[in-house]
Structures are given as C-alpha cells and as structure tokens.
Amino acid sequence: MTFDTFHIAISKIKNLKLPGSKSQFKMSPPFREELIKRQNENIKHAREAAVMALFYPNKLGKTMLVLILRKTYKGVHSAQVGFPGGKLEANETLKEAAIRETYEEVGVEANEMEVLKAMTPVYIPPSNFYVHPFIGIASQTPSFTKQDEEVEDIIEVKLSHFLDDSIITTKTVTTSYKVNVSVPAYKLNGHIVWGATAMMLSEVKDLLKQVL
Asked: Which of helix, strand or coil describes residue 12?
C-alpha cells in the first residue's frame, strides 16, 4: 500500500474504539489471561514505559513499520524484537516518553512524528513494567540511526507483510512461569516476535484492518 493511501485511511483510527485485551490475547501465551488476573495488585505498583508503533514511507513510497532487535544482555528482553521505546522519566508524559525513546533508539526527530492514538497498555511480569503503546506516523522517509548501546538492528517491516495472516506461527519458549511452552508468534523479516510485543502488534493490526 502506498503511504499516501495509508495516511488518509489511518487518520480514521482516532475515533475508533480500541480492540483491547481481546485482541491482545490472540497472541498471548496460553497462561497469560489467568496470570494477569493474579497480577492486578502488582500492576498498580509497576514501573511505566512507553513504546511507538511508527509507520512511515520508504523511498519507494510504500508503507513500513519500524521495529528493533535489542542487544544481547543479562535481562529478560535480551535479543528480542520490540518497538522503539523505554521507561518513563521524571516530569514527562507517556506520549513524551514514547517520542523521546523513539528518537534515542532509532534517531527519528520529534518534529518528524505525529502521534495518532494511545493503545491498550500491557503488563510485563518478568520486568514489572506496564507498557503503554502509541501509534505514530512519520510523513517522510526517516534517516534511521540506531542507539548502539541498546539496539542491535533496525527492522523495517512492509505493511503488506505485517497485515498478512500467514505470518502467524508458534514458538516454543522457556518462560519464568513454565518450561517449554508453545506460544503464538509473528514471523517478521525472518525474526520471531512473541510475548508483549506480539500482543501489542495484534491490537495494532486489528485496529488498522478496520480502516484499510
């Protein structure tokens, strides 16, 4: 899809009701819904973070979505694919945090982005973060610059690939709750995306399909 067509269509999402947890649970681990019911008190005291689902045109005018591959480190999100984003800092809003972190991690300036909608937050028990996703667009092709300390690679996904239901697969993972559990996942540009990022992507996908 050309970005001009996408840009016109996506403006309609501002007035749409969010698909919410029903959409997210399509791509959640099988034990996730029950786990969250037991984690309500922890969510109240969780640290907050914000991420950006940023769409933009490539040099051919086709619509793209940017994701990042995180560095390998001693942490629960080591070497995982996710959105640009990070923890909330003092005296900033969640929207401001998503914009700032997107600039820090992939180099897109704040004045190049328009934030269209806040999505449904997702709690991540292993890291105790309550993550707030936003949908944004950049009208011009960004000149990406990755943050070498945290970002291993910048992943540019075609919108047509993201919307294709055939990219849904499963992955066997070892979690902090169960060993060798099969979870739903997306296969994007050769990367397997699961967990909280897949859940957030699912809601973004369902919302976009209402207007595209």
From this structure: helix
Q: Which residues of 21-32 are buried (b: 16+ CB within 10 A; e: fewer)?
A: bebbbbbbbeeb
Give the residue among 139, 135, 169 at the shortest CA–CA distance from 54: 135
What is the distance between the alpha carbons of residues 212 and 3, in angstroms, rounded to a whole number?
12
- Token pair listed for 102: 């997107």
Class of domain 3-208: alpha beta
Amino acid in the structure at residue 38: R
Q: Are 105 and 85 in contact (CB under 8 A)?
A: yes
pLDDT tens string, the chain, 212 residues long: the values are 999 999 999 999 999 999 998 999 999 877 666 666 667 777 888 899 999 999 999 999 999 999 999 987 655 545 789 999 999 999 999 999 999 999 999 999 999 999 999 999 999 887 889 999 999 999 999 999 999 999 999 999 999 999 999 999 998 876 655 567 888 999 999 999 998 999 999 999 999 999 99
Spatial distance between the Cα atoms of 119 and 169, rounded to a whole number of angstroms: 24
Prediction pTM value? 0.92
- Could you tell me which residues come within 8 angstroms of residue 198 by beta carbon, excluding any fewer than 6 positions away? 27, 28, 184, 185, 186
CB atoms within 10 A of CB 76: 15
Angle at 149 between CA 50 and CA 176, to 5 degrees: 60
Q: 199, 178, 167, 175: which is closest to 25 by C-alpha?
A: 199
